[in-house]
Amino acid sequence: MSPGFAEIRMKLKELFARTGQIHSDFEKSVIADSLSDLLYETLQMPGSFDYPFSLLNSLGKTKSQDQKIRIYTWNIPDLYGTNACYGFLQYKTTKNLNSES
Question: pTM for this one?
Answer without folding.
Answer: 0.85
